[in-house]
Amino acid sequence: MRLDFYKKKAYEIRKDLFEKFYLLYEGHPGSVFSILDVLIVLYYGGFVRIRNNVPIDDLIMSKGHATVGQYPILKDLKVIKKKEWDNWGSKKSILKMFGNNYIPGIKTTTGSLGHGIGFATGIGYFSKKNKIKKNIFAIISEGELYEGSTWEALLLLADLKLSNVTIIIDVNNNIILGKPKECLDLGNIKKKFESFGIYTKTCNAHNFKNLESEFRKLIKISKPKCLIVNSIKGKGFNIMENKAHWHYWNPISKDQYLKSLKELKEIYE
Fold first, then answer.
1. Residue pair 7/206 in contact by the 8 Å Cβ criterion
2. Shortest CA distance to 76 belongs to which of 53, 58, 95?
3. What's the DSSP call for residue 47?
4. I need a surface site. Which of 36, 60, 71, 210 has the fewest CB within 10 A?
5. Is it the case that residue 51 has pLDDT exceeding 60?
6. Residue 93: left (phi > 0), alpha (psi -120 to 50), or beta?
7. Residue 185: pLDDT band by 50, 70, 90 thresholds?
8. What is the DSSP letter of 225?
9. pLDDT of res. 173
């Protein structure tokens, strides 16, 4: 059953990433684990199609600090060589904490926030003009809605009416500074996007059945679209869930590390 498969991958990939973060002593685990289940459905559900170890469709991780969430999936799907993942942290590897377009399967270099929708719009327009059939997914954080470039790109995307572009907004209610409502309230994000003429839906970021269903519907919509996914920062790890300071890796003891792995296993059993 596909849902059991998604759940199995959610455990395995979270475990692999947590072990890698612990080894590297750095990273952005809160943001990675909030969007990971969405990535699992996009890749293993066939929405980002891969042929001969090369993606046909494009996924742009605009919240570049979460790009590492793609690495173990791309390794599993043989887009990235296994040795690159295994070497990362101990030997020479092409993998970096922030992705770049020299890494197979990573379309654009990101990290400076607010550019993903612009990238997606440019790629979408080029593809449409040249009759290239591909889907472009741009994953942004709610914090990127503080960037003026995000709204400028939305204006162009809406005007060009690019039906091959899907925006995914990861709303985990925790940016670096804390809760957005206590910093600068973003208001009703869904209504704002709909005001641009963008077809917009909301979904639980950790419900595999709902995610798959929404993506199947969205892919058929003949206009720009957006899926707002309500997520839990640090999903799967009690030590970091819903804690803003786990935007970055925090020092933990070996006992805390082993306890977290045990708790993770219990969650997904």
1. no
2. 53
3. S
4. 210
5. yes
6. beta
7. confident
8. E
9. 85
3-state per-residue secondary structure call for 167-200? EEEEECCCECCECHHHHCCCCCHHHHHHCCCCEE
170 and 34 in contact (C-beta within 8 Å)? yes
Measured CA to CA, the distance from residue 3 to residue 46 in angstroms comes to 14
- DSSP label of 70: T
Residue type, 126: F
- For 127-160, the pLDDT digits (tens) are 999 999 999 999 999 989 999 999 999 999 999 9
Q: Do residues 119 and 62 lie in contact, with contact meaning Cβ atoms separated by under 8 Å?
A: yes
Mean pLDDT of the chain: 94
- DSSP conformation letters of 206-258: T-HHHHHHHHHHHTT-SS-EEEEEE--TTTT-TTTTT-GGGGS-----HHHHH
In the structure encoding, which two tokens stand for residue 12, read together?
A: 């395995």
Terminal Cα-to-Cα distance of the chain (whole angstroms): 16
pLDDT at 244: 86
For the chain, domains (ranges, CATH) are 2-268 (3.40.50.970)
Rounded Cα distance, 220 and 164, in Å: 10
- Calculate mean pLDDT across residues 239-263: 95
73-110 residue pLDDT tens: 999 999 999 999 999 988 999 999 998 999 999 999 99
Contact in structure between 202 and 171 (CB atoms under 8 Å): no
Phi, psi of 231 (to 5 degrees): -125, 175
CA distance 257 to 218: 39
How far is residue 83's CA from residue 87's CA, in Å, rounded to a whole number? 6
Q: Alpha-carbon distance 53 to 77, whole Å? A: 7
Beta carbons of 218 and 38 less than 8 angstroms apart: no
**Please, which residues have CB within 8 angstroms of residue 125's CB and are 6 or more apart in sequence?**
160, 162
